[in-house]
Specification:
single chain, mainly alpha, 79% helix, globular
Amino acid sequence: MKKRIFYIISFLVIFCIEVFIALYVRDSFVRPYMGDALVVVLVYSFVRIFIPTGVPRLPFYVFLFACFVEVLQYFQLVETLGITNRALRIILLWSRMYLYLSV
């Protein structure tokens, strides 16, 4: 139970930092690079809440998932699909967050 509490607290702290970065930071380093790095740790912490004993290759799986998301961003999936509606982009952002959290 102690491990779960540790991962719950770390998840909540990192999530709050991510929200702060998303809302208030507008630069070319912290938001694109540090934000992505923190999301990887966020996903790992979230999974460890439910699997406190750990999975031997979990860091590798999280890394693969992050690489997949980066490839989709590289190919500009949102622009490719022609999604210009701001509300729809926000929905896609939250669904993307859900995907990060459901790993």
